[in-house]
Specification:
The structure is a single chain. By secondary structure, the protein is of the alpha/beta class. The chain folds into two domains: 216 residues, Alpha-Beta Complex (Spore Coat Polysaccharide Biosynthesis Protein SpsA, Chain A), CATH 3.90.550.10; 159 residues. 58% of the residues lie in helices and 9% in strands. It is built from 14 helices and nine strands. A four-stranded mixed beta sheet has the order 4-6-5-7. Strands 1-2-3 form a three-stranded parallel beta sheet, with helices on both faces. A two-stranded antiparallel sheet has the order 8-9. The radius of gyration is 28 Å and the shape is elongated.
Length: 379
Amino acid sequence: MPCLNEEKTLGRCMDKAKAYLERAGLAGEILVADNGSTDRSVEIARQKGGRVVEIAEKGYGCALRGGVEVAEYEYIVMGDADDSYDFSDLSGFIQKLDEGFELVMGNRFKGGIEKGAMPFSHQYIGNPLLSGLGRCFFGAEISDFHCGLRAFRKDSILKLGLYTSGMEFASEMVVKALLFGMKITEIPCKLYPDGRDRPPHLRSIPDGLRHLEFLLIYSPKWLFAYPGIVLFAAGFLFMVRIYIQPLQIGRIQFEVTTMFYSAVIMLIGFHMLQFAVYTKMFAKRIGQLPGSFGMADRICAFLDRRGYGISLLVLLCGAAGAAFTLYLWKESGFGRLNTTWICRTAILFGSLFSLGTEGVLFTVFMKILRMGKTYHESE
């Protein structure tokens, strides 16, 4: 139980957990990971026969990681110490662990949320939105990413290298368990109004944004690759179309200015694709993602075979176009040219020159990232 000033409810939570252990005939301990309480929480935990581990580094994630690391038993059930979850019956979680699952998530939406137990914005906006993104990004069949009551095998969770310090720890555990192929399931659990006489530690908007940031960081294809593909393709096609012939739709004419910004959008899209690959390669090196990572693997294999050739070809096309425009300028005695046409030509071939140069550098840097042993392998 992570704890920060929970003197009003901690004792009730511990009594319920102790009663369950005795009734089920299970050997176990009640471990309170105290995160700097200034009230009587620590005293109460010890009076109730719990083991207290004091976690100096602040944060929900820090408290839970510290508790998991020192826990003495194979199975761990984690839950908030605010009396919002019922610790008196954890049989469903233990049964699923016995069946071979490594992470068992509670689902408050299936188990029931009592009136006043969860703010309207959390119940109908925040949690469904973030859980929906998690299912979309990672192919999860988990409907409640942020349930505070869950059970897991200690050795399996320690292998994930969890590191976040705040409330986003709840998402990190689920996301990395999915990425590393752990067996996960979900069971209904009920959420009750907490017994606090103070505001909760959760800060809705900041903590929600940290959850969203984490989900995006661990899904580079949604953060970088898919938007990058759309921007690159749209920018390139629009730029070429306007170069061939200015486009007019009704009274609106797309000319040099539109072509320039299309080139900018194309290059931004290419940068985003690079970041998708770099992010996955770096995460793999430090052990935050599994060894195989799909699209980035395919891009790396393609660049290994043809990266330099294609990039140099595009670069040379751009250089040839630049030389052609210089020739036309020379033929005019370095005087005035057809400004609109020459601008379109400069934009097209200048963009190709830039794209080819970046392609060469992309291939080189990708090879640098793949050099030697990974960090976690060399430790």
